[in-house]
Design goal:
Strand content: 15-25%
Oligomer: single chain
Radius of gyration: 26 Å
Helix content: 40-55%
Structural class: alpha+beta
Largest sheet: 2 strands, antiparallel
Distance between the termini: 85 Å
Length: about 80
């Protein structure tokens, strides 16, 4: 009877430990995850690079959103 009680105790402890953690977040360690300021800086840097490249061609950069990503192109 002692081993049954021990097994039941271990099973309950394992179940409690598995349920106590809660669901995981959407990968909070990903670069820029849950930090909008990082995304803004990244987009500002990309715009600066696009403007620099387009100015070499005597054009200006235009941005458009496609499938959640900002794409830059040069226009007259």
């Amino acid at each position: 009877m002692g081993s049954t009680v021990r097994q039941l105790t271990l099973a309950c402890a394992a179940l409690l430990g598995a349920c106590a953690g809660g669901p995981p977040l959407d990968n909070p360690s990903a670069p820029g995850a849950m930090r909008p300021d990082v995304d803004e800086r990244r987009e500002a840097r990309a715009l600066e690079q696009a403007e620099a490249e387009c100015s070499r061609q005597r054009k200006h950069a235009v941005a458009q959103r496609v499938d959640g990503e900002t794409l830059y192109d040069c226009a007259d």
